[in-house]
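Sanity check record (used in CI):
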Amino acid sequence: MSIFDDPGLFGRLCADDYDGPGNPEPAPAVDFLADLADGGPVLELAIGTGRVALPLAGRGIPVEGVEASPEMVAKLRAKPGGDGIPVAIGDMADVPVTGPYRLAYLVFNTLFNLVRAERQADCFRNVARTLAPGGAFVIETFVPDPAGFDRDEQVQMREVTEDSATIRLHQYDRAAQTFVRQTIRFDSTGVHLHPFAMRYLWPQQIDELAAQAGLRLAERYADWHRTPFAPDSRSHISVYRKP
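Expected output for SAM-dependent methyltransferase:
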């Protein structure tokens, strides 16, 4: 059993800084998802602090969420409108809700936070269970770049000041398609560790998970602006449909 099997780990470590600068701008995702919502209801897996869900709800679309981290949900509840979004506390792989939903989505590479292949498959199967006929499941992830793995495994200097230093380390398991990342901060109070892990997949492998769950690939783009997906695309937005 690894600490990365704990679905609430990311939220406990990241909730305080999750809405800070440097995170993706949600507006393009909101526009894209609103076009697919078909009036709702809509389900966000790993709803976090509501960066996508709240703007969607602001457009009159009923939104619900699943989130493993009470710390993240507390941040959501503190925002205007946050109390109006139902959130089930639980593992997104279990999808502990009933539906049916016109749309479910999992964005910002979060599928890869499930570090075991069987849990990624569980996620697709359980989403399919909660979708209405014709409903859509939208996934956003990066496309793995093996050429960058060796570069990532070098020590990366993140920040150096007169009283602190931060470095980042990666280690890849190419056979398992996983990596562990450790961000280490040294300052006057001691050494602080910020662990993170992912199990990455290529788009074709995600298509296979969807097919096993009874979903079919309907659309794929390189970004939220519907740029055509190409062999050299660095990310993808994939829309799967339930028959």
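The longest strand covers residues 131-142. If this sentence no longer matches the regenerated tokens, the check is flagged for review.
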